[in-house]
Amino acid sequence: MAAITSDFSAAPVLPKWIAPVLLLAFAYGVVPMIGSSYLFEAILLPFLALSLAGVGLNILTGYAGQVSLGSAAFMAAGAFAAYNFNLRVEGLPLIGSLILAGFVAAAIGVVFGLPSLRLKGFYLAVSTLAAQFFVQWALTKFSWFSDNSASGVIDAPRLSIAGFALDGPVGRYLFALTIVSILTFLAYRLVSSQTGRNFIAIRDNETAARIIGIRVLKTKLLAFAVSSFIIGVAGVIWAFAYLRTVEPDGFDLDRSFQILFIIIGGLASIRGAFFGAALIVVFPLGLSRLGGFLLGDVFDSGVLDMSQRIVLGALIILFLILEPDGLVALWDRVRRRLAWQST
H or E element: which one contains 122? Predict the structure, then answer.
């Protein structure tokens, strides 16, 4: 027993930053050289956009305990704000449009987060759902947001930073990867700070948080603002880098639920957003291939959509029952077991 203990104590413990750095090195250095257009267009770009949206929602729901069903509305606010800033402010760089769009989404998030000062749980979820319907209605009703386009569908502006065009699949992937990496790092620093601990305190016991001096109302609105800012930027990536169009239908209620389903990755976990988004993006592709192989032409798009909803719903229920901490907890358990077996 002593020998086993000494072996474990002597095993080197790698710093936490090693894995993210190696992953980013692979994402920047290897993936652009070996990836196909299909990999970028169908998998990596939606994965990055949804991962960032999941990070934003996790800050609000996982850390601060505030339920939201209007994530797609904040994505739409960010996408349309970036489009209009780029269109109407001459000489404004793309990054400037993106940052200002994030602030617009944050302001809208604060407005629709005001009910959280009085409402909780289901009632708060319903009030945030109003944001979804209001934003979609406004974008459809007032053609000014779409530059008076008759169809309401407009092409996304050309991606260019410091004179470098990013129109190709690799360029758009690198653009999305950079934005997601920066905001994820900042989100991690936020939840690791005193502000993040304040979020958790309010989530666990709002009365106790108020007693120990946490300004509950201000902290709740801050959570909505930060979450909406990140989700708004994710909307810019979704429209500009992935869809290449800016349209209200790209941010419908189904998109809000899709982002909500990312919680299967794990609440109050930055990594969990990426695990959940990976499942949401890859699962329909795998299900489509499997269904087509087993059922042939019978497995059409309608059957695929219904099967996806049923299986995803069943998986979420199973995880809530068997593994409430989500995919990230399951991954950690498997990794620890493999490490134990290797020793």
Answer: helix 121-141
> What distance, in Å, lies between the first and last C-alpha atoms of the chain?
13
CA–CA separation, 105 vs 76, rounded Å? 8
Distance CA 198, CA 145 (A): 37
CA angle 318, 330, 237 (to 5 degrees): 90
pTM of the predicted protein model: 0.92
Complete DSSP assignment for 291-329: HHHHHGGGS-HHHHHHHHHHHHHHHHHHHHHH-TT-HHH
Closest by CA to 190, choosing from 236, 222, 221, is 222
List C-alpha distances in Å: 276 to 14, 24, 53, 271, 322. Answer: 25, 19, 11, 9, 16
pLDDT for position 13: 58
CB contact at 8 A, 184 and 59:
no
* Integer Cα distance of 132 and 288 in angstroms: 29
Would you state the structure tokens that stand for residue 256, as one six-digit string?
């809000």
β-bridge pairing 164-165 and 160-161: antiparallel
- Predicted pLDDT at 116: 81
Please tell me the predicted confidence (pLDDT) of residue 169: 94
Q: Which two tokens stand for residue 337?
A: 């077991």
**Strands 160-161 and 154-155, bridge-based pairing:** unpaired
Provide the sign of the torsion angle of the four alpha carbons 330, 52, 34, 156, taken in this order: positive
Could you tell me the two tokens for 268? 């109050």
**pLDDT block averages, 10 residues each, the chain of length 343:** 43 72 95 94 96 96 92 97 94 94 96 86 84 92 88 84 85 96 97 96 94 94 97 97 92 92 89 93 82 70 76 79 82 82 69
